[in-house]
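task queued by scheduler; priority normal; single chain, no ligands, no partner chains; default sampling; output format set to structure tokens
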Amino acid sequence: MQINDQTKGQAPEVGRGIVLSMVVSQFRGHKDVEIHLFRAHWDAEEEAQYDWEKLLGEPMRMDQPIDPEGSRQVFLETLSMEEKESLISYLQERYADRLRSIKASLLPLPIPIGLTPLSSVAEDQRFGRIHLHKIPNYPLQFAVDGLFSLSQHPQCKQQDIEDEF
């Protein structure tokens, strides 16, 4: 498994802001599925501690109503350095034989207003979600979900399909 940690030597300026994804070799009958991981829950006290004037930038589109809530949630879904390290360690220990790669990078700041958070993408024919924190013996102190789209990945041959997440 390859780990591409683009955050090495860089700590987020504001305590969090790290995004993480993983590529699963075989997942739900498809090959090399990229899953975007994100924090699934946070409390109102945490949201209140950030200086949103500094974190949020200009709107993505001026022809739509300007609502900063989605972009706030995008930021709150990101990981701290400690959470990133814990999550990568967990994934390496538990799923090393199923993962092709893990990628970590910093969310560029300021965040444009008008983004859609991963947590608000509805599950349907195109998008699905995994709930890592609901898997038995999940050891981390924070909830993590993953969003994926199978339509972007080739199907496995029938004989290649095995047990997955």
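post-processing summary
- The first strand starts at residue 2 and ends at 5.
- Residues 107 and 150 are 24 Å apart (CA to CA).
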